[in-house]
Amino acid sequence: MTTIERAEVLVAGPGRNFVTLRLTTSDGVTGLGDATLNGRELAVASYLRDHVVPLLIGKDPARIEDMWQYLYRGAYWRRGPVTMTAIAAVDTALWDVKGKVAGLPVFQLLGGRSREGVLVYCHASGTDTASLVDDVARFRDLGYQAVRAQAAVPEVGGTYGVRKGLIYEPAATSLPDEQPWSTEAYLRFAPTYLEAVRDRLGFDFHLLHDVHHRLTPIEAARFGKRVEDVQLFWMEDPTPAENQESFRLIRSHTTTPIAVGEVLNSIWDVQHLITEQLIDYVRTTVVHAGGITHLRRIFDLAALYGVRTGSHGATDLSPVTQSAAVHLDLVVPNFGIQEYMEHAPETMEVFRSGVRFENGMLHPSEEPGLGVEYDDAAAERFPYDPRYLPVARRLDGSLHDW
Q1: Which of 130, 146, 295, 372 has an alpha carbon 20 to 30 Å from 287's alpha carbon atom?
Q2: What is the pTM of this model?
Q3: Quick check: 166 pLDDT over 80?
Q4: Catalytic residue annotation
Q5: HSE of 309 in the Cβ direction (CA atoms, 13 Å)?
Q6: Which CATH superfamily is domain 4-105 in?
Q7: What top-level class would CATH report for the domain 109-370?
Q8: In 10 A of CB 394, how many CB atoms?
Q9: What sign for the dihedral angle of Cα 369, 372, 375, 376?
């Protein structure tokens, strides 16, 4: 019987920090899984090395479902981002192995294509309205059919989602950067720059906006109502999701679609949001929601209630997750959109991926498995470098949701 012979936890910082699990079978087949948890990478690396890897050696790599149940239901401590990211790494690596053994890309094992490509959205930003509109226009010229728009709030001096260079990376300092925040200034300004984008560039593309948990439910309701005329594809994370009933209040005041889920880790975290139809798009992702196996369950539940997919896909997820997401997106009937940001050139030196962008869509590799290779020699040039995500404080100094 073929078994898992080796399990390696690889930590490197090519452009940003990534944790990768590489499984090798007794037949010499390898599989890659992403285990990156932005700002808490070493917690997952330790969880894997100290608690999960010893459980994998000697196991049958073909038993993906049984392994998922073993790592989840067989443990006393369940759920949470560290545990679910570790499980996701194992699950994704096993799907990569299975595809290589079968000689098929993973999307074929999941049921085959439901569409020809995966619609993606990019991240446009600016230090003011004019520079934001120019950036949206630039992405439109590059062929993107959907664009997320964020601009710095003038009275505050900055806000979430604004790039400092060509690559957006918020985890950029050895200790958390403390950034100022004013809800009042944001609510005055953000609708105006979204309107400016539509006034100049029209309505023949999808426009998205990320609120990033910064509003109370009634503030989010007011914002959603205010921007209805710009026809947002969605407003993302309008309020923290811990109190899921709060989304019912938002729903009662606005028809602007709502997307939630990138910081949620299991089907139980989004069950109420989906079954009560409190959201329109579920943004859980392969790496933080238990891998391909569990994310498929979330998407299938969502399909029953008319909720579409919109998985998180920023550069805090490695090209392994990006590829796994595209394979799953290609298959599920209720696919909505996929977040996409180009990785730094250094990242792509370590991860050789067959995913390609064309005409506003991503296309997976047709190679067996996920179509991603890990270059150990390149990774050695990029050691781990501790980075923290920023912290938001109101103008009076009190802490605000990030």
Answers
A1: 146
A2: 0.96
A3: no
A4: 160, 212
A5: 29
A6: Enolase-like, N-terminal domain (3.30.390.10)
A7: alpha beta
A8: 12
A9: negative
